[in-house]
Amino acid sequence: MTRKDSVKQQQGIVNAHKQISATAKEIKTGDLVTRTGNDFTSESLRNLCKRDQTYSHCGIASIENDTLFIYHAMGGEWNPDEKLRRDPWNLFAEPYSNNGVGLFRFELPDTTIKVLIDVVQHFYSSELIFDMKFDLKTDDKMYCTEFIYKSYLKASKEKLQFNISRIEDFEFVGPDDIFLHPLCKRRAQIVYK
Predict the structure, then answer these.
(1) What's the pTM value of the predicted model, to 2 decimals?
(2) What pLDDT score does 78 carry?
């Protein structure tokens, strides 16, 4: 890497942080946030998306005491205890291991959003574990989009219905099954450069 490349890379990081901060001002409690990881696992997960392979991971936003948190499920080396995470927005969206983020909002009444956050916080306080088997039929462990899917489903009293993807007999919910829902509207998409 040349000095010029290093300076360009550093400027890209600075610009990404500015975009992350600007996007934070647009996020509301209950919003769906997505990201595109830049590692092999994220690329593999994006390939499971049947309709739109932009994003590999997602979470639900909650503004608590003036701090924007993202609740999300992840496993592997980034989360050795595999418990549901509650990360500040800047950590969730960081540009070192991600190529970008997206912001989506479901058209839901405020009462449903309140129930959604209650559901999410219940999962968090119960120390929900990441589901390494990606088994959509169990509720004691959940993978990232399963957590999102079941949270919105429960909060809406199953009025929101989502697409279920399939590979032969294996059923799963991918990020695109969530953000392509007809009631979910994209509010922002940032690609770090």
Answers:
(1) 0.93
(2) 74
